[in-house]
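Hello forum,

I keep getting stuck at the same step: I have a sequence, I want structure tokens, and every attempt I make locally crashes halfway through. Rather than fight my setup again tonight, could one of you with a working pipeline run this one for me? It's a single chain of 374 residues.
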Amino acid sequence: MVSLALRNLLHDRVRLVVTLVGIVFSVVLSAIQLGLFMGFRAATADVIARSEADLWVMSRGVTHLESAVPFPERRLHQVMQIPGVARAERYLVNFSQWDRPDGAEEGIMVIGLEPTATMGLPWNLTAGRVEDLRQRDAVIVDELYLKKLGVTGVGDTAEIRGQRVKIVGTTRGIRTFTTAPPVFTLLSNAKRFVPGTGDDLRYILVRATEGTDTTALAETIRTTVPNVDALATDAWRSAQEGYWMFGTGAGITVLIAAGLGLLVGVVVVAQTIYAATVDHIREYGTLKAMGATNGYIYRVITQQAMVSGAVGYAIGISIALSVSRASLEGTTAILIPWPLSVGLALLTIVMCLIASLVSINKATRIDPAMVFRN
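Reply #2:
Ran it on my machine without issues. Output:
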């Protein structure tokens, strides 16, 4: 039966190529759109997800990371007194302005941390050390944004809002959804770079003692410390992703494009498989006249669809993964993790099976007597 399905596919190779092109197009478009969605999602919340904190404490009503509202520093001491809090650190995230050596300006996201910080540190360091931030006016930037910032690497100097900074380290792959390059520095520097900060805090990162229920600890902080909210890191990351991906509509746009890719694939595959079935309608009639059941015809057509889907997926995902690898060299990453690849494989097979339903209906309604008529 498999050989019959393969012979049907290979009999008209032009039609086979058209079918495969439709499937490949659908897989590539869907994989890249969903990969963009994954990349955008990671960029929105990587600073939170990689913080290694158990809880984030912030002013009430804060909807996303970049919109922190100041609150008094005494809240830090109140948080530290709560049983279950092993460590609490000041943290600042806010936008500022980078003055390039050529006189141009670029928006940046300043991330300030304490000199002895253990949470919220830069990751994927390619040059320098986190400890180097203790040097005067020191900052760590990401390699992907060096050109945008008008610098070349460690040792270069620039200014943030007219104040000198020196690059002491670089990271690789720390992206932001807003395209404002992340700039790590000490909290004391960050307060100078973000006007109006004063002695107030933006965030407190909390590490809980071993065995502490972080959900219960967050509730205790909310009810004990006035006018602050406390969220577990996973909850805060989800809120951040939800705000940027769905609150702004950016994520929905990408998902709609991925859905359209799948729809186009279904239409193209359905049309080509249906046309292939009609071309072989007399052969199917002959099979039925020889005693073949509708179930046999059904299996031949579905096998054709599954073979087309498997080959088209293999080609399509290979192209998509190549594009994904190339994107990692830029500031917009297309991430295609293995669960997404597996999901697309299953989706492609299902798409092809759905597309084959139309032609199955046509083939199983054949009158076997048609082969004896002129």
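DSSP finds eleven helices and ten strands in the chain. If your local run keeps crashing, start a new thread with the error log.
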